[in-house]
Specification:
By secondary structure, this protein is mainly alpha-helical. It contains two helices and no strands. The protein has a domain of 39 residues. It is elongated and about 50 Å long.
């Protein structure tokens, strides 16, 4: 069996995870998750969009 010297694919930390194909910066994703998890009664999407400076649909 012969193995190629290079895989010719880019390998990232997020490869194969739910964060693999994202357009939003990783820091904003983590901030949004942290804010929504630590909210006592949840967090409204409009308020979240204002906090992480994104559009309402993104939040």
């Amino acid at each position: 069996m012969r193995f190629p010297l290079r895989c010719r694919r880019d390998l990232y930390v997020t490869s194969g995870t739910v964060f693999a194909y994202r357009k939003l910066p990783f820091k904003k994703l983590i901030a949004a998750m942290w804010l929504s998890v630590n909210a006592v009664k949840g967090l409204a999407a409009l308020h979240l969009s204002r906090l992480i400076d994104t559009q309402f649909k993104t939040a």
